[in-house]
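hey
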């Protein structure tokens, strides 16, 4: 739509003068939406609040006291949950309109405070040493319930993360640096199975039309965890089997990219496929012909640039 489109529609009688007065300021740029900017600021405010509360307690722990700190955090958390339950709009299988403009952020704040209290009890008193795994599972179940009850994608992400942590699946920049993607032996197999099972559940819920807009979040986690697990397994065990798994995952991610119109899934497939192909060639051809590394590097870099420009533009047009 160009700046002259509203005028053309008005001249042809497709819209009324009243509709033209509403559309024209938006198209001409006289009215600019700051919806996403405000949402970003609100999310940052929630994160900064929880971070600031933790720093304040840490710096003044001697004068405030542990019990008072825990009680204060608990009161804030309960106030958040009281608010969201008081003004809830009711459950629906589809998207739910938030009752207020800051409703989702209050819910997110309550969940983050819940995690903060758990961490406080564990690190200060070791209260969860004997049941840390079950505590993580209970947290995941609670967050899944809240995500579906109040239709919150951010809480769903926390729930999936907590469920993965229950199975000891975790990926962090520190583990990337140290080369330890998973903290235990053969956990890359657990990651692969976890991603397949959770992805299957997501498809089942999608077919039943239960929170279909959650499917993208499920797939994003599952595809990423699958590829990280398969790449890690490729370096530790039977590399040919895991290379085959990666190629199968690439085909699935490509299909999902076309189905969901997502460049992100296609990027996951490209990166995982590139790593698998490079490792495969290194174990076969490049061992005998090292000079081919140079030509492969040039071609692969050019291919990546072409891929980024070609398919990102394709998805934008679609």
């Amino acid at each position: 739509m160009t700046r002259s489109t509203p005028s053309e529609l008005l001249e042809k009688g497709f819209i009324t003068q009243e509709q033209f007065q509403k559309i024209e300021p938006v198209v001409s740029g006289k009215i600019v939406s700051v919806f996403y900017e405000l949402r970003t600021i609100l999310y940052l405010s929630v994160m900064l609040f929880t971070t600031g509360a933790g720093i304040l307690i840490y710096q003044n722990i001697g004068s405030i006291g542990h019990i008072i700190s825990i009680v204060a955090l608990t009161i804030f958390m309960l106030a958040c949950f009281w608010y969201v339950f008081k003004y809830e709009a009711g459950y629906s299988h589809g998207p739910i309109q938030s009752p207020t403009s800051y409703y989702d952020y209050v819910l997110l704040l309550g969940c983050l405070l819940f995690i903060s209290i758990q961490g406080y009890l564990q690190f200060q008193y070791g209260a969860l040493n004997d049941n840390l795994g079950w505590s993580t599972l209970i947290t995941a179940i609670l967050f899944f319930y809240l995500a579906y009850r109040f239709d919150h994608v951010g809480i769903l992400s926390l729930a999936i993360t907590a469920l993965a942590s229950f199975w000891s699946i975790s990926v962090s920049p520190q583990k990337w640096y140290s080369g330890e993607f998973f903290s235990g032996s053969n956990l890359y197999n657990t990651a692969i199975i976890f991603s397949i099972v959770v992805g299957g559940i997501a498809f089942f819920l999608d077919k039943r039309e239960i929170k279909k807009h959650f499917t993208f979040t499920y797939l994003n986690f599952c595809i990423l965890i699958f590829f990280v697990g398969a790449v890690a397994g490729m370096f530790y065990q039977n590399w040919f089997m895991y290379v085959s798994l990666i190629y199968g995952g690439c085909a699935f991610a490509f299909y999902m990219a076309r189905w969901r119109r997502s460049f992100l899934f296609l990027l996951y497939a490209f990166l995982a496929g590139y790593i698998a192909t490079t490792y495969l060639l290194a174990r076969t051809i490049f061992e005998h012909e090292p000079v081919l590394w140079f030509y492969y590097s040039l071609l692969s870099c050019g291919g990546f640039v072409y891929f980024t420009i070609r398919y990102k533009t394709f998805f934008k047009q679609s």
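The chain has a mean pLDDT of 79. The chain has two domains: 34-151, 177-318.
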